Amino acid sequence: MVKNRLLRHLGTPSAIYGLLVFASLIAAMAVNRHEGDTVASVFVFSTVTLVVFWAAHVYAYSLAHHADERADGATIWASLTHGANESVGMLEAAVLPAIFLLLGVFEVLTPPRAIFLALLSATAMLGVLGFVAFAIREGRWWVRLLGALGTAAFGVLIILLESSLH
Fold first, then answer.
1. Are 102 and 81 in contact (CB under 8 A)?
2. Which of 6, 26, 145, 157 is the most exposed place for a label (fewest CB within 10 A)?
3. Helix or strand (DSSP H, E) at 144
């Protein structure tokens, strides 16, 4: 089922967090752009920072897994694999917004449009996740729609708050 696949990859806490962080970094760079900054610099800064956050998540999940009594006998490699599997959504969720930034880098889109579409796609992804979450709970269509709008709006709020801190 499509919604189960969607949630398995993009509906994880790591994926949602990664999407919020990536969008916040894009927004922060867009607002605080200096002369000479390009879409390429926005892409590189946002991507490199997200990869650092991803590495921190892999580290945290791996260390916690290795120390967990339920993972008795787990090798460090098994713990690292567990950490990478739990955290990969952070990177997966950033793909669509990154594509729009890359379209700006290669001048298919103007820089403002590339940044706008990257942020819009992140917001839309949050809305879709909200819609699917409410659909799983058997919500009526208007509840699903309100859920989508609410999760997208709350995501925008978090993106604005996070971007103001970077």
1. no
2. 157
3. helix 141-165
Dist CA 7 CA 160 (whole Å): 24
> Is this model's pTM higher than 0.85 or not?
yes
Cβ-in-10-Å burial (0-12, 13-18, 19+) of 115 comes to buried
**Single-letter amino acid code for the residue at 84:** A
Picking from 37, 26, 31, 162, the residue whose alpha carbon sits closest to that of residue 101 is 26
For 6, the token pair is 């969607």
**3-state class of 93 per DSSP?**
coil
Q: How many helices (H) and strands (E) does the chain have?
A: 8, 0
As a whole number of Å, the CA-based R_g of the chain is 17
Contact 132, 11 (CB under 8 A): yes
